[in-house]
User: Fold this.
Amino acid sequence: MANASLKGAEILAKALENEGVDIVFGLPGEENLDFLDALRTSEIRLVVTRHEQAAAFMAATYGRLTGKPGVCFSTLGPGATNLVTGAAYALLGAMPMVMITGQKPILQSRQGRFQIIDIVAAMKPITKSAKQIIDARNIPAQVRDAFRIALEERPGPVHLELPEDIAGQRISQCRFEPVTPHFRPVAPDAAIKAAAGLIAKSSHPLVMIGGGANRPGLAPALSAAVRALGIPFFNTQMGKGAVDRNSDLFLGTAALSEGDYLHSIIEDADLIIAIGHDTVEKPPIITQSGRPHVVHVDFNPADIDRIYSPELEVIGDIGDSASRIARELQGRPFDAGFYLGRRAELMRHIAERSDNAGFPIVPQRLVADVRRVMPDDGILCLDNGMFKIWFARNYRTHIANTILLDNALASMGAGLPSAIAAAILYPTRRVMAVCGDGGFLMNSQDLETAIRLNLNLVVLIVEDHGYGMVRWKQQAYGFPEFGLSFGNPDFVVYAAAYGAKGSRVASADGLGMALNTAFASRGVHLVVVPVDYSENKRVFIDELAGVAKQNR
Assistant:
């Protein structure tokens, strides 16, 4: 394609359009004014954020939900370093993303070393690829390559640095690279047959669904394969929703690494079919001394370590592999009743105190009331905190990617930006961010972004005036309580200062009503609920210690 004298920044915008990019998140600076102007005249929607980290979280969430790379940008120096946490979030979470940062002119500059650090070198350890653009004529090929790398398994972030003089460089002709179809390889027949043979020999197999199974578009094939297998299944935290949880074969979520009620069932398995398990997650199970046997079914080879050592790997498209394994085992009945007889007892434990009237609200009631308010297709975006363990353990999901939690980098501050991205993508669905009072204030400034965009969004702040997750660990390890408490602003007044609506829940029965009222009135709402985290010690330390003793 020939063009009459385009700037490098204009070529970049057109290359993004060529990739189908419809939205870019970012915070501009002097060094990318040419790019900003190119976006002004492009078909791409610009979402200006109040912090670069929030822009990166939004772009990563866009990639997670759509399967297409999300795009974010920043200026050089401090703007670019603010993207680092978002890059790590996307890398560990396998979310496709392209980051574009500015830089001082590289051919001639009169500003010395002002604001200049080697961002490309800084990004290399936390991206799949990081490169500087040194000639505008290379932009179409470099953008095509960046998107290809971001998408291919394992998905993740890619960084491109556009210096100020290259952004302004004019060239008379360029050719945009055609976007070719993206296909995943499939596993060889020998691997499928070997896996089916191992499974057929087992007496009490289980299926474990991991985060890799939550790629967009996989759910129908994977749900059908699990039904065809007829083998009970459980999921990791990031595997929630990949298979329909209405299934009678569903046992629960491994929210802890060991010692929970679910683990007392898992311990009786002689084989685990690990579909999409990624060891970046906090371990959902601990395997030792070859028991249980593990068949690893994933897009990528397993990362072998002391607690995860599969004896067979089926590498290829997950949906295809699971479907073919199920066909190989057609007619082979499995004794699902061996596990399902204990399922009701496990579900009874999970449901305990879900109607508790005490206040501050107990976590079990908190999760249950949020589940009652959210429709099956509603999207719940969790920040990181103690509540995440309770939601992972107790919140039932029925559709893929309707609970967005991070069990990889597990960064605080991601909940609100993730919810903003989800609300942009799905304006007709209920979207809720659940944040602790600590995590919310790490990126609360982007409430203004949500209000400016006229989004419909509810932010539930779980208030305990402290870093609850660390406090739980402090208790579990026998340390005296110290250094984890803080004060909070009046969140209702805080919401009003931004132009949002705020409310404070005053009773356990008031939470569901407050959330429904917030959704019904539309706009951006903050709902604050005090939480009783004494349940953390009672359940996860005292009660589960008793379960561990019984299993010895």
